[in-house]
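Figure 2 data, in text form.
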Amino acid sequence: MSRQTLVEAATNPPQSDSLASSPFDANSFDEAVMSTYARFPLALERGAGCRVWDTDGREYLDFVAGIATCTLGHAHPAMVEAVTRQIQKLHHVSNLYYIREQGELAKWLIQHSCADRVFFCNSGAEANEAAIKLARKYAHTVLEIERPIILTANASFHGRTLATITATGQPKYQKYFDPLVPGFHYVPYNDIGAVEAAISELDEGDYRVAAILLEPLQGEGGVRPGDRAYFQKLRQICDETGVLLIFDEVQVGMGRSGKLWGYENLGVEPDIFTSAKGLGGGIPIGAMMSKKFCDVFQPGEHASTFGGNPFACGVALSVCQTLETENILQNVQQRGEQLREGLRAIASKHPHLIADVRGWGLINGLELQADIQLTAADIVKVAIAEGVLLVPAGPKVLRFVPPLIVTEAEVNTALQAVEKALATLAV
């Protein structure tokens, strides 16, 4: 089934679905669902390619992609086929048994990365939890550190569990959830002097730095790419001290940066790294990957009931293989450059509003001037009215993370909507 056929089917869906034919009631939704999200006032019900439709039948260009998750867009033929095939065959069994699809996906990831071992879970937060646990066990059993410390960066984001919000260097995510998990220390991003000072200062008594956990590009922290020289120096420090280098690739991995993994943009390899979001193309799956030397887990020390089940792994493998067969990384590079050039052109027309344009591949940020009242959420609201979905990355950064199959024409449509939104808000 072609993308055009899928778009036509989504535009004119069958009306036999009782949910689709009944009006959506936001009030009853809010009465039933916890208010953990500040939702925009629309309800989406179907999609095809880079387009989605709401319950009123209005069409939108999706430059959110489930926040960098729908790698192949919506209803991609490869995923439709994989979902159908796997759900008819075997969707879940326990990890007490060998799972063929899990092994095949692990092999693909190992063949296409620096990893030697893979642990599967359900989300990015769980993958980062697994990385934290692995680093702590390695610290105790190999480095002989009694009280290991993990360095993370200010403005980072690593998840919503208690350990991962502690690892997250943003106090707004930690408020009201103390006492937080001990064993973390924060340093400025892209500041090698701060890392060297922390390693020296924290080496006291039973305490020592055991690992450094960083995003190759900070996504939620404002779409801030890592500095190549900084990360290469980090790799040197870790090699000299035995400290583990861990990369959170949950948002930037799986082709989002224009390369399969974000670390490839930095010229270094991590000891441990994590993936989720785009790995399953929208089907929940996470992975924690490591080099062989630090794979110290033993049976019973870590687990996940749903992690690595046949359904999630079968679909994720189809996503991985499609990235190759459809040469999607080339599209990411081309469309990413087109998007940044277009955003820079818009910035040149509105220097009083826009401070910076930055990013890799198809994860890009438009930063607003700090001294103006306009926020990224303001632009998102106006863009929705123009039929384009965007997402903030903090109060002053507008984030662009479309499906990796986005076309030249669709990028131009998004750019036109942003320019129109800025012109409207400027007035």
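Caption note: The chain is about 40% helix and 20% strand.
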